[in-house]
């Protein structure tokens, strides 16, 4: 039930649904005296949220920085990569359509090729509410093999639907194989919540964040509304709501 509620709730905190609900409320409760005022408030809020300057500042606070090489171990028993980068609706058995976050698997494969890990654990099945026939981990395993890893270097968790299940299933495999040194790879904005749920499972991996999105450079274009700015705000809201829901459920 929590999984279903979390999927529904995330759509209610995205900017465009909130915008349309707000416009609908203004239309339904139309009052000539106050409508212009509420429309102005809505316009200002939309502007602030849609400019890259806003989302870059919030993302820079949310993203975990990449650790310096001297803080990493020279070798790990297993490198855990969390999925969430494949468009499963457009992907098939013979091809993969990647979305955001593809740096996660590319980083994992690169670290394996550098000899930093004995095993690559790809964790994640299908987070869809309606069609869970395909497993992202299985697709990414074939992708990693195509890029040069051998099948015996890869372990998959094919059933996880969210970050909490990633941690639970990964922890089970880590204990089953008696892995001691663990490196966790996921997007930088997602790393803090991921570490929290892994710690709750008694697993304390080193962090290797990737897929950085916040830009430190401010230009005049940083104050021009863009679809990318709204997308980043949705990403931030998804993560913050995830923190809240996981805290309420005791996952963190």
Question: Your description of this structure?
Answer:
The chain has helices spanning 2-12, 15-28, 35-50, 52-62, 103-113, 136-146, 163-176, 191-200, 227-249, and strands at 76-82, 117-123, 154-157, 182-187, 206-210. By secondary structure, it is of the alpha/beta class. The protein folds into two domains: 2-63 and 223-249, no CATH class; 69-210, Rossmann fold (3-Layer(aba) Sandwich). Strands 3-2-1-4-5 form a five-stranded parallel sheet, with helices on both faces. It is elongated, with a radius of gyration of 20 Å. The relative contact order is 0.18. The mean pLDDT is 88.
Summary?
This protein is α/β, with parallel strands linked by helices and 252 residues long.
